[in-house]
């Protein structure tokens, strides 16, 4: 044959990747039973023309051959035939482990006539870029997929495993996950924040019962996102939690610093109310000036989570406590400067301050931060306090979620470009009437948006 070349088993898949990048198409393969071994000839078509290229791979009788299906999914068909006829084994075949071979949204599943006589490797969950970038560790790929399947109840349950405020975050989160999305390189990153908002608006979630009482009482000073998050998770773990807020209403900068058109107070009140309904006691108009008094009153641990409420910028960015060294000294807390801001000194791992049984979380420990970072800090503080008091981090069982298929679409279907869904615009001059600056996605739009996910968290 013309245009032949010899290839080794080690270079087969890398060379095929280069071939595919250059536009080459895999056509088929031929196997020959040679003396003492086998020869497999791979046939490629270049540039959709009559120009062909043929690769010869010689192997011993018992050698295992790398599968080309990770590059050309259809290669598994001929590899299956070669395996059947010659007993040659292929490794790392990218078969759909659920049994379907080629799946599109417009056609039924097609199944292999001769299934392989071995178990293909099961799908593996990876830490996708969007998941890695989330300070709170929300399982973003999973709830995005569930939204794509219209499973809004399950999507909301996934979010609640990590954060107590999906409705708030669906409006004011800085969404670093969207910038981390691989599709953002084409300015078509998944609308992750809006999917979170839609899951909150359309999903139904029932809180699991808290764990049995630990007998511990915990005081939290400040009812911003960090303090309320810590209260939520500590209560779930069976602790008696009391939140002290110096202002007339709870919410901290969420209430006093973010415009209502950006975060409707009905959403804020509903999500804070859910925490209060979970058994957390909240005392407003209660200023705390002495931490030792709280310990003397029988609290086993105290979490400091207050911040400033003036000069707060939009989009959920918090103005950090700055210039309040006297306040920190009066409370007996060591302070330090970070980027020009005075913050409480804490242990980086445990968030414990210099005072026994006193912890701190939120913007008072980090400087200028975001709502999602404050929430993440609050959960970390809750877990540290739980461990400090001798408890374990066994979260109450969440509602059962539907089993999810981890198989990807075909390579070709995944690479097909799909435009990001654009939420409807608020009519000019109608923001006050509508009540919000953004309208969010419709359920139909959310399903389309969720289906755009490339499944970066799955390796098959």
TrEMBL record:
Domain NADH:ubiquinone oxidoreductase 30kDa subunit: from-to ranges: 7-93
Pfam family, one: Fer4_20
GO molecular function, one term: oxidoreductase activity
Top-level taxonomic group: Bacteria
Start and end residues of each Dihydroprymidine dehydrogenase domain: 127-201
Signal peptide feature range: none
Domain FAD/NAD(P)-binding: residue ranges: 216-378
SUPFAM superfamilies referenced in this protein's UniProt entry, alphabetically: Nqo5-like, Nucleotide-binding domain
PANTHER family found in the cross-reference section: GLUTAMATE SYNTHASE [NADPH] SMALL CHAIN (PTHR43100:SF1)
UniProt name for this protein: FAD-binding protein
């Amino acid at each position: 044959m013309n245009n032949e070349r010899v290839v080794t088993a080690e270079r087969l898949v890398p060379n095929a990747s280069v071939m595919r990048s250059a536009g080459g198409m895999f056509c088929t393969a031929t196997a020959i039973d040679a003396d003492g071994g086998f020869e497999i000839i791979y046939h490629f078509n270049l540039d959709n023309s009559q120009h062909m290229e043929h690769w010869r791979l010689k192997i011993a009788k018992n050698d295992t051959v790398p599968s080309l299906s990770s590059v050309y999914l259809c290669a598994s068909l001929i590899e299956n035939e070669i395996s059947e006829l010659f007993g040659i084994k292929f490794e790392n075949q990218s078969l759909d482990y659920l049994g379907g071979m080629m799946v599109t949204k417009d056609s039924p599943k097609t199944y292999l006539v001769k299934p392989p006589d071995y178990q293909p490797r099961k799908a593996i969950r990876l830490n996708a870029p969007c998941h890695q970038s989330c300070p709170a560790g929300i399982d973003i790929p999973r709830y995005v997929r569930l939204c794509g399947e219209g499973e809004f109840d399950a999507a909301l349950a996934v979010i609640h495993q990590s954060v107590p405020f999906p409705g708030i975050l669906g409006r004011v989160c800085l969404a670093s996950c969207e910038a981390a999305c691989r599709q953002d390189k084409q300015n078509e990153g998944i609308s992750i924040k809006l999917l979170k908002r839609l899951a909150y608006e359309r999903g139904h979630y029932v809180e699991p019962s808290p764990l049995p009482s630990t007998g511990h009482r915990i005081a939290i000073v400040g009812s911003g996102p960090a303090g309320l998050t810590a209260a939520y998770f500590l209560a779930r773990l069976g602790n008696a939690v009391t939140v002290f807020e110096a202002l007339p209403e709870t919410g901290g900068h969420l209430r006093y610093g973010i415009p209502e058109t950006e975060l409707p107070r009905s959403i804020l009140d509903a999500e804070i109310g859910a925490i209060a309904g979970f058994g957390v006691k909240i005392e407003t108009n209660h200023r705390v000036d002495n931490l030792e008094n709280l310990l003397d009153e029988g609290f086993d641990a105290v979490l400091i989570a207050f911040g400033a409420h003036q000069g707060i910028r939009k989009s959920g960015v918090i103005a950090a406590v700055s210039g309040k060294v006297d306040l920190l000294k009066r409370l007996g807390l060591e302070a330090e400067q970070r980027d020009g801001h005075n913050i409480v000194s804490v242990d980086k791992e445990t968030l414990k301050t210099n005072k026994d049984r006193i912890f701190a979380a939120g913007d008072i420990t980090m400087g200028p931060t975001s709502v999602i970072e404050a929430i993440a800090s609050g959960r970390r503080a809750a877990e540290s306090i739980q461990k400090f008091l001798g408890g374990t981090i066994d979260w109450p069982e969440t509602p059962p979620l539907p089993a999810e298929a981890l198989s990807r679409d075909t390579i070709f279907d995944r690479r097909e470009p799909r435009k990001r869904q654009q939420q409807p615009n608020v009519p000019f001059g109608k923001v006050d009437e509508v009540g919000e600056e953004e309208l969010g996605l419709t359920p139909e739009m959310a399903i389309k948006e969720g289906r755009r996910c490339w499944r970066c968290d799955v390796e098959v």
